[in-house]
Amino acid sequence: MQLTTAQPEQLEEIVHMFEDVKKVMAKNNIYQWNQDYPNRDIISEDLRQGHLYLMQKDGKVAAAVTLDRFIPPEYDEISWRDRSGQYLAVHRLCVNPVFQGQGIAKKLVQEIENFAREKGYTSIRLDTKTTNQRAMNLYESQGYEKRGEFYFPDFDRPFVAYEKVLH
C-alpha cells in the first residue's frame, strides 16, 4: 500500500469513513474528535488544497491523513527539538474501522515518514489526546518523542505533542 493524493470523486467515501471512525472512537471512549470535527467542510478543504492523502486496500479507502505545514497556535507552547522550520505536520490520521487491526496505521506512519524525507522535511509533528492510548502507543512504537502537553479550546483533557526528527 502506498500513500496517494485523494481525488474529488473519493470525497463521499472519505467522509463516510471519518463518520465511521468517530463512531468507533466514541464506542471506545476516545473523544479525540466530536460530531463537528472533522466535518465534510474540513475534509473537502483538505482535498481541495491537495493535502489529503489515502492508503487503499481491496479498492476501498483504508486510511486517510492530512499532511501540511499548518500548526495550531497551541503548538507555540511546545519545546520542539528540530528548530529548522522544515517540519511536516500530521492531522486527522485515521484507519477505516473495516481495516483496523491489520497493521495499516503503522504502515501509514511509515509512508508519512517516506513522504517527508522525499520532500526534504527534517521532522514530523503531530498530536493526540492524552486519553487516546492507542494513538500514543502507535506513535511511541514508531520512535516519536513526547514533547509536551497542551489544551485545545473546548476540551477538558490535554493533548500531547509528538515529534520525530528525521535523519
Structure description:
It is a single chain. With 167 residues, this protein is of the alpha+beta class. The chain has one domain: Aminopeptidase (3-Layer(aba) Sandwich), CATH 3.40.630.30. It is 30% helix and 28% strand. A 7-stranded mixed beta sheet has the order 1-2-3-4-5-7-6, sandwiched between helices. 31% of the residues are buried. One of its GO terms (molecular function) is acyltransferase activity, transferring groups other than amino-acyl groups.
Q: Considering the protein shown, what is the CATH homologous superfamily?
A: Gcn5-related N-acetyltransferase (GNAT)
CATH topology call: Aminopeptidase
Spatial strand sequence of the major β-sheet: 1-2-3-4-5-7-6
How many beta-strand segments? 7
* SS-derived structural category: alpha+beta
Tally of individual helices = 4
Helix content: 25-40%
Q: How many separate structural domains?
A: 1
Mean pLDDT: 95
Summarize the structure.
By secondary structure, this protein is an alpha+beta fold.
Write the layout of secondary structure elements.
Elements: E1 4-5, H1 11-27, H2 40-48, E2 52-57, E3 60-68, E4 87-95, H3 104-118, E5 123-129, H4 133-141, E6 145-150, E7 159-165
InterPro entries: Acyl_CoA_acyltransferase, Bact_Acetyltransf, GNAT_dom
Keywords: Acyltransferase, Transferase
GO molecular function: acyltransferase activity, transferring groups other than amino-acyl groups
